[in-house]
Amino acid sequence: MAQELTIGKVAKLAEVNVETIRYYQRRGLLAEPDKPYMGYRRYPADIVKHIRFIKRAQALGFTLNEVAVLMELEEARACGKTRALARDKINAIDQKMSGLTSMRKALATLVRQCEAGEATKGCPIIRALEQSESSRTAPAR
To answer: Contacts by 89-94 with C-beta closer than 8 Å and gap 24+?
Structure first.
């Protein structure tokens, strides 16, 4: 008979909180074993592998919904679909990086303006944020 573990032992082995396991169960990512009368739920040892899979996928930027899809694809041995999902994730990361680069450049420009003493009409950073906000909230004509 395979070793069965308590939820506390599973959490310790997987290096997560017990509440993380319960959350994954509520999300349908992990099965919840039956609770015997007057006893504790017992988890199969391989659940630790599943939790680590989820955590590694999250570390690579996959959402829990995407993790669920990856888990289904793993069971189906659908490498092509998994590869496509990973490529989509790479594209999303590239877009985020591009956006972050643009934000960094804009902030660096504002900081340089502050450092150059161009604050005769107040802080350039605050003025830029006020202008950005007012342009979004200005009534349409």
So the answer is: 89/60, 89/61, 89/62, 92/61, 93/61
Using alpha carbons, select from 73, 25, 77 the residue that is nearest to residue 47.
25
Q: How far apart are the first and last CA of the chain?
A: 74
Q: Please, is 108 exposed, middle or buried when counting C-beta atoms within 10 Å of its C-beta (0-12, 13-18, 19+)?
A: exposed
> CATH number for the domain including 60?
1.10.1660.10
| Tens of pLDDT, residues 29-41 | 999 998 888 788 9
Task: Name the residue type at position 3.
Answer: Q
C-alpha 131/C-alpha 70 separation (Å) is 43
Does residue 43 belong to any structural domain of this protein?
yes
Range of the domain at 31: 4-77
pLDDT confidence band for 74 (50 / 70 / 90): confident
